[in-house]
Write a sequence for this structure.
């Protein structure tokens, strides 16, 4: 299960990074702002939720000890998804791309930090 958690972490990092770059590209080049972008963002963020669930299951079921700060960053990353989602109604439709682009890069930074300290 540890190998699955580590492998999925890399997939989550790449997926969220690609989604963020795509969203920033769509902010700059409107032709990139297609519906598939939002499905990709959703898939990347759902994979992140799955990664967190696997981590929690490893801690609860396997009695695995991890640094508390690793767990903290994992849940902060989850909270960041919720914050992005809640802010989508606060910005105009065109600004959604910038919100999810820059917010996605922030999430990528949190994922990297979580992987380094884990």
């Amino acid at each position: 299960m540890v190998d699955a958690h580590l492998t999925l972490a890399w997939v989550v990092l790449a997926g969220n990074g690609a989604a963020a770059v795509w969203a920033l590209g769509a902010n700059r080049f409107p032709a990139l702002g297609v519906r598939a972008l939002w499905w990709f963002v959703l898939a990347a963020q759902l994979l992140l939720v799955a990664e967190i669930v696997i981590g929690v299951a490893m801690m609860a079921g396997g009695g695995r000890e991890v640094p508390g700060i690793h767990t903290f960053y994992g849940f902060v990353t989850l909270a960041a998804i919720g914050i992005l989602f809640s802010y989508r109604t606060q910005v105009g439709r065109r600004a959604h791309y910038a919100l999810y682009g820059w917010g996605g890069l922030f999430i990528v930074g949190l994922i990297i930090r979580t992987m380094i300290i884990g």
Notes: The helical segments are 2-28, 35-62, 68-87, 96-117. The chain has four helices and no strands. Residues 80 and 106 are 8 Å apart (CA to CA). The mean pLDDT is 93.
